[in-house]
Amino acid sequence: MGSRLRAFRRHRLPRRKRHECCARRHGASVWEPIKMPLLVTSASGVNGDGYGALLAFGYDGRPLGVFSSDVRIADPRGLAVDQKKQLLFLNSGSDRVLALDRHGKVLRDTGPIPQLNPGGGIFGPDGRYYIGLRSARTIMALSATLDNAGELLLPAGIVPFPRGFAFSSGGALFLSSGIGPTGEGENTIVAFDQGLSLKPSRLVSDPELSPLDLVVAPNGNIVVSSEHPFGLTDAVTSIREYGAADGDLVRVLSAAGSAEFRRPRGLRFGPDGILYCVARDEVMAFDFASGRCLGAVVRYPRLNGQALAFFP
Description:
Elements: H1 2-10, H2 15-20, E1 24-26, E2 29-31, E3 38-42, E4 53-57, E5 63-66, E6 79-81, E7 88-92, E8 96-100, E9 106-109, E10 118-123, E11 129-133, E12 138-142, E13 151-152, E14 162-167, E15 173-179, E16 185-192, E17 201-204, E18 211-216, E19 222-228, E20 236-242, E21 249-253, E22 267-269, E23 275-278, E24 282-287, E25 292-299, E26 305-310
Antiparallel strand pairs: 1-2, 3-4, 3-26, 4-5, 6-7, 7-8, 8-9, 10-11, 11-12, 12-13, 14-15, 15-16, 16-17, 18-19, 19-20, 20-21, 22-23, 23-24, 24-25
């Protein structure tokens, strides 16, 4: 991995491409990307032929290097900023969860949790940090202090292969189930009411959906990154929006030829209200209000991003 990280530090995008990412038409005005670092977890192993590191990019798309070289970060996955915006929580492929400060120093560490195999991570309405468990096929809740054992939010095996999940403003939980690296799984989105009934309702049945991540939009709808059929080189990639009450498909967002947009993964609404999605070779931006693709804010070969976050 060391040679790949050195290559990452040396790589710079051509000047023209960097400036192409700095200004996009956003309605009647010019949209300017957020002027704070964008962090991306780059996969390795079965999750993707990336750098196996937490990478940083400038607001103009410039690669800034590895955000943290702590050896406990291996094949990083989920990423979330705490509610006070002081710490960055990271799910490591070394079966642990870490919390880093803005200098990349690890301040909190769960220590190794046998067979954790974490996926994505978000903060819940109760302030706890929730992580998807790929092997156990459920969700675990951890105290934000990371100093005690986590507890399962749902029984093991609640879905065939958990992908992204999110809470609504009213406390309902939406959990997407997709296809795993070895082909196991089922493409759907299930919903749990605020009491977390152990009998989920199948909310979305879309034959063109294969979810990779899920977020709740500012309008309350569910937004999902999709690659269908999963894993195929000619798969159709898209961002799909569904009604939170009925699961009906509202609209489909696409890259519209502005980038290849292969292997879309983590989604994030930025402080500017723009929807960002990390993919194999770029980070894409979408004007969610209009549904229009704003293009790539980062272009980087073999990025194989899993999650992204803006961390001041």
